[in-house]
Amino acid sequence: MPKVKMPRKSTAIDMTAMCDVAFLLLTFFMLATKFKPDEPVAVVTPSSINTQLLPDSDVILLTVAADGRVFFSMDGQPKRKQLIEDLNTNFRLGLEKKEISNFVVGSSVGTDFKNLKQVLNMSPDQRKATNIEKGIPIDSANNELAIWIEYARAAQGGMNNKLKYCIQADNDVPYPVIKKILDTFKEKKIQKLNLVTNLEAKPAGSAAAIYEEQQQAQERKK
Length: 222
Fold this sequence. Notes:
Helix content is 43%, strand content 10%. β4 (164-169), α7 and β5 (194-195) form a beta-alpha-beta unit. The chain has helices at 16-32, 77-91, 97-105, 113-120, 124-129, 144-155, 175-187, 207-221; strands at 47-48, 59-64, 70-74, 164-169, 194-195, 198-199. The model has no long low-confidence stretch (mean pLDDT 82). The chain contains eight helices and six strands, in the order αβββαααααβαββα. It has a domain at 57-196. It is α/β, with parallel strands linked by helices and 222 residues long. The strands form two sheets. A four-stranded mixed β-sheet has the order 3-2-4-5, with helices on one face. A two-stranded parallel ribbon has the order 1-6. It is a single-pass membrane protein; Single-pass type II membrane protein.
C-alpha cells in the first residue's frame, strides 16, 4: 500500500515574545546601570602629538591637580574590592561594607588613610564642596602613595605584563610634585610610565608630520 505524503507547510515563528523580552532587557539595563561618578577634581593636561589611546583595562591612574593634590584610581571592580579590603585589613581603616562598596563603584580618591572612611561616606557633590581631600601624601616621611601603588599591583595580579601606570597631571602642576611621584615609582622599581595628554596637530615640517604625509601618499597609491 503506497505511503501517504503529508503536504509540507512553512514554519511560522512568532517573534512577538522575543521582541518583548528584548525591550524588557533594554529597559532593565537602562534603569539598573550605574554610571561612574564625576571625578572629584578636573585637570587641564598638556598637549602632545602622541595618538596612543589610554587603555580601558589594566590601568593604574594618578591624577594630579593644579595645586599638587594627588588622586588614585584603578580599573576593574573586583580588583578595586580586593585592593580596598587588603588596605582595610592591614592598616585597620575601620571601613564598613557600605564604604568599601562606595570605593569599588566610585571615582578616584585623594586623601590620607586617616580621612578615607569619612571621604567614602560622602556623595560626589559633598566631596567637591569640602576641602577634606587634600591629596594622597607623597612626602618621604609619609609616602602613602607608595602603599597605594604596592597594594594596587598586588590586586592587579603582581607580575601583570599588561599593567600600565599613567599620570594625568594638570599643566600647572609644580615640577617638585611630579618629581616626588616619579621618585615613588622609581622606589618601586617601576621604570615605564605613561603621561596622559591632549592631542594636538603635528607641527608643519616636523619629522612626525612628514612621516604622516608619506604614509597618506602610500595609502592613496594603493
